[in-house]
Write a structure and sequence with these properties.
- It is found in: Cytoplasm.
- One of its GO terms (biological process) is prolyl-tRNA aminoacylation.
- GO terms for molecular function: ATP binding; proline-tRNA ligase activity.
- The chain folds into 3 domains: about 260 residues, Bira Bifunctional Protein, Domain 2 (BirA Bifunctional Protein, domain 2, 2-Layer Sandwich); about 100 residues, Rossmann fold (3-Layer(aba) Sandwich); about 60 residues.
- It is globular and about 80 Å long.
- The protein is an alpha+beta fold and about 475 residues long.
- Helix content is about 35%, strand content about 25%.
- A hairpin with a 2-residue loop joins strand 5 and strand 6.
- The mean pLDDT is about 95.
Amino acid sequence: MARVLTPRAEDFPRWYQDLIAKAKLADNGPVRGTMVIRPAGYAIWERMQAEMDARIKAAGAENAYFPLFIPESYLKREAEHVEGFSPELAVVTHAGGKQLAEPVVVRPTSETVIGEFMAKWIDSYRDLPLLLNQWANVVRWELRPRIFLRTSEFLWQEGHTAHATREDARAYARRILHEAYEDLMVNVLGIPVVVGLKTARERFAGATATYTCEGMMGDGKALQLGTSHELGQNFAKAFDITYSSAEGGREHAWTTSWGTSTRMLGGLIMCHGDDNGLRVPPKLAPVQAYVMVVKDGEGPGGPAEAAQKLCDALRDAGVRVALDDRTDTPFGRRAVDAELRGYPVRVEVGPRDLAAGNAVVVRRTDGSKSPVPVADVVGAVLAALDADQQALHDQALAHRESRTVEVSTLAEAIEAAATGWARVPWSAVGAQGEAEANAQGVTVRCLLRADGSVPDSEDEPDLVAILARAY
């Protein structure tokens, strides 16, 4: 396997690119910065979508769809927003063979267009809260693209809500942060995340507060995996999102927005992948058990028939299973491909093991191989899936803890960020120190209270800052 992928310790970026190519997850698109997500990669994204969509709906939001093209004037109505996105915008000036009277922007995010329709749909306090989500593609012109992590077009969900009070908006932004984002990342993706508040320098353009989920990757760098924003009344005032209060007055709504994207796929690769390929947490895996016919025997009752029966039994037990009976392809090549794809469990069925009444259960997380009586395979697979879901999370958490250091000065934090994360008093950094760190390629990933909870403001006393290099 060492010859299939560049070792992570030797060249982590090259390993990442090798894995994406060899596991057939994605390819570069024909326009610089775009990507083609191949079936193996898209199957994982579909599972992420399904799990995230269920959590978003459980929080009360409903799915809708808004246009890809947004009038340029919409973005200009919220000055900070358009300024923040200006370098990344793709603008259409000609269509149908003619110059457009007004240029249109290819959707970088949808606060503006959704704000326009919120203003149309909201009249009374009885219309609030309005909780919307859409699954879509967005375009942000990327100068330094990297598949899944930074591409000019990517897939995501973006939620947009309007509320009667600031307190309700804040509570909902945090509900999504914890109940949808953090829960999915920790309990399904197996990625332990630090959840905190972004600094003013790092927050979303036009927001009053940005909350983030930050994961540590295999090389010690941070990756922002999802964000939730309080927008205050900035967009409500720009787009006249008002409602009649119970007292009869006219009030501006308070809005939020929040999003996660195909960047989570990049995070999954870099958090759990090893020198043999991807390792997909069982709860997420499109294929949890991969049943392989090693070599077929003669007549009925051979490995092919036994493998099919095992597939049926596993499927009946609720396991997502696939059968590989391609005995005309060398078994070693098929096993390498299965390792690269990160299938949590392989069940290998060959004549020799079957003659002894066994199949071989191979666990991707630790590489162990165990002969198991055929009658016990389903139980062994179910136990392995449960254990390895937790094992991947625990390994990632241990890695993060081993690469995170407590320091007391900005200089120490910047030094520590060369190999991992630094926890430092925010009072020792501040806005000036943050600018100094940025100049050296280090960012403040988020701010936390001393007890690890999420602060309301960066002005709270005794906050802790997480500094790191990041993707």
